[in-house]
Amino acid sequence: MTEHSTDIQSEPKSSVDSGRFLRYVILGIAANALVWGFALIFLKAKTPIYTSEWTLTIPAGGNTTNVNLPGLGSAKEESRAPFANSNAFDPREIYKMILGSDAVREAATARLNEPDVKVGKPRVEIVDNSTVMTLSITGETSELAQKKAIALTDAFQVRLNELRLQEAGRREAAMQSVIDSAKKKLDQAQARLSDYKARSGLVANDQIVQLSNNIEGLRRAQIEALAAQRQSNARFSQLSSNLELSPNQASEAFILKADPLFQQYLTSFGESSNQLVALNSKFGPNHPLVIREKAEREAAESALLRRSQTLLGRPINQTIIAHLNVGGGSTASAREDLFKTLIREEVDRQGLSAQAQELENQINQLQARLAVLARQGATLDALTRDMQVAETVFSSTIARFDVGKLDAFGSYPAIQVLEEPTQPDSPSDPNKKLILLGATLCSFFITSALISAWTRKRWIPQLMRTAPAQPVPAALPAYEAEAPALSTDTKPELLDLSSPKR
Predict the structure, then answer these.
(1) How many CA atoms lie within 13 A of 442 on its CB side?
(2) Residue 66: helix, strand or coil by DSSP?
(3) Which of 447, 415, 358 is nearest to 132 (CA)?
(4) Sign of CA dihedral 78, 82, 85, 91
(5) Which of 22, 149, 262, 382 is the most buried (most CB within 10 A)?
(6) In whole angstroms, how far apart are CA 370 and each of 193, 218, 378, 379, 382?
(7) Which residues contact 109 (CB under 8 A, 6 or more apart)?
(8) In this structure, which long-range contacts are made by residues 360-363, counting pairs with CB atoms below 8 Å and at least 24 apart in sequence?
(9) Are the C-beta atoms of 290 and 279 separated by less than 8 Å?
(10) Highest mean pLDDT range out of 73-87, 88-102, 327-341?
């Protein structure tokens, strides 16, 4: 072992270091050339890819619409905010699926109007705690990447409109069924009400109110007629009592007064009676003049009684004739007026009595009619209420349907382009700066490793010469026997490295 070490040390130190350094330099140049050659070839051969980016946002607001229908009802339409319950529903997740769907990508490809160019699936990122979506898509050129982004956005908007129209169509079909049902119920309610009005004659409850008012008016008229009748009865009774004459007798008196023949007989009888009185005062009862005048008076009286019976239809006597005689002169006029008043009061009394009776009959009839109308009014109210309910439901349904048309963004909220698709200035892949940086780092690490290895192998022999001698193991003779067989061309550094391991 000592002899071998002496042989190694006898070699020129400068020639060993120079050879080892040269080998390390060649290895470093080759490794760095390989790294940079691969990097440059990759940059040259790799087709550049450009990325266009843009941002979409969904307005988070909601709205409420109220429609009041006077006398019918109201309709309310409330548009739920897209993010009202973000834990359970986020429309951006649905939009993310729609953006990556085949239909949207095929539509965007058709919009490009570029042969052999297809719009791939965009990259969509949802920004938490916001309403924003960031999108990106790649292309072989910056213009193509931007065109793809614009075409994809337009196709996405068109697809959303198609989905909204489909939803509106389904909603309209469902609502139309509800409207048809409500209209059918309304028509049935109106038919029942019209039929009942035609059968009962009761058109509106105002008729009942008007009938009640008429009954009350008749009752007031009846009360007034009864009061007037009582007044007329009182006047009639008093006048009849004063004249000791009935209305029939007063009428007979005017019948007798109106007959000229009766009046002639009455005048003859009066004159004869007056003449007889004058003769009796001068002559005795058997005097020829008295007897002749008495005969004339009896003849006038007989004619008067016959005429009275003919006119009145019943036999009367002189006492009755005297009682019925109106008289002549101013006295006759006053007595005649009293007879006329008596007859007029009788007529008024009978007229008021008949009026009161007729009012009573009318009141009874109207009360019976009112009882019937009251029972019919309950049915009319029920039918009218059914019709009003049906009309309210129908009108509210129509209003809600019309208002619902205003909300076209219920399930698919409106979307806005917050940032337009960009036209990249440089390709995103390959990233030249990143590749060059990687190649630089690889060169640095390779060079550092070779320098470290060269420095280590240079200082190991010196460390071994300065180290204290170690006892030779028992197996060392065999090693020493083999040592001379080694070629003198063996590299000293390899021997130095193998010695510690053995």
Answers:
(1) 17
(2) strand
(3) 415
(4) positive
(5) 149
(6) 20, 14, 12, 14, 18
(7) 117, 118, 119, 151
(8) 360/222, 362/218, 363/215, 363/218, 363/219, 363/222
(9) yes
(10) 88-102
Burial (CB < 10 A; 0-12, 13-18, 19+), residue 300, is buried
Contacts of 410 (CB under 8 A, 6+ apart): 79, 80, 167
Please identify which residue in the block is written with the tokens 């169509």. 169
As beta bridge partners, residue 126 has 133
Cα–Cα dist 430/428, whole Å: 6
Distance CA(474)–CA(452), nearest Å, equals 36
Task: Encode pLDDT of 163-212 as tens digits.
Answer: 888 888 888 888 888 888 989 999 999 999 889 888 888 878 788 888 88
* 185 strand-pairing partners: none
Contacts of 93 (CB under 8 A, 6+ apart): 126
Contact assessment for residue 259 and residue 326, using Cβ atoms and an 8 Å cutoff:
no
The first and second tokens of residue 304, run together, are 């008067």
Alpha carbon 77 to its chain centroid, in Å, reads 5
Which DSSP helix (H) or strand (E) runs through 63? strand 63-69
CA–CA separation, 405 and 179 (whole Å):
14
Which tokens belong to 385? 């209420």
Token look-up 């009849």 returns 240
Asked if 412 and 167 touch (Cβ cutoff 8 Å), the reply is: yes
Q: Is the peptide bond before 430 cis (omega within 30 degrees of 0)?
A: yes
Average pLDDT, the chain: 75
With vertex at residue 394, the alpha carbon angle to CA 390 and CA 395, rounded to the nearest 5 degrees, is 115
| Tokens 């614009």 found at | 150
Q: Which residue has the higher pLDDT, 52 or 305?
A: 52
The vertex-100 CA angle with 96 and 102, nearest 5°, equals 145
Three-class HEC string of 158-213: HHHHHHHHHHHHHHHHHHHHHHHHHHHHHHHHHHHHHHHHHHHCCCCCHHHHHHHH
Q: Are 156 and 104 in contact (CB under 8 A)?
A: yes
Cβ pair 352, 228 in contact under 8 A: yes
Residue 18 token pair: 């120079």
What secondary structure does DSSP assign to 202-249, as a single string?
A: ---THHHHHHHHHHHHHHHHHHHHHHHHHHHHHHHHHHHHHHT--HHH
Question: How far apart are alpha carbons 152 and 460 in whole angstroms?
Answer: 67
- Report the Cα–Cα distance between both ends of the chain, in Å, rounded: 13
Comparison of pLDDT for 431 and 499, the residue scoring more: 431
What does the DSSP 8-state code read for residue 429?
Answer: B
Residue 54 forms beta bridges with which residues? 135
What is the token pair recorded at 440? Answer: 């630089």
149 alpha carbon, distance to own chain's centre: 40
**Residue of 444, 465, 413 whose CA lies nearest to 95:** 413
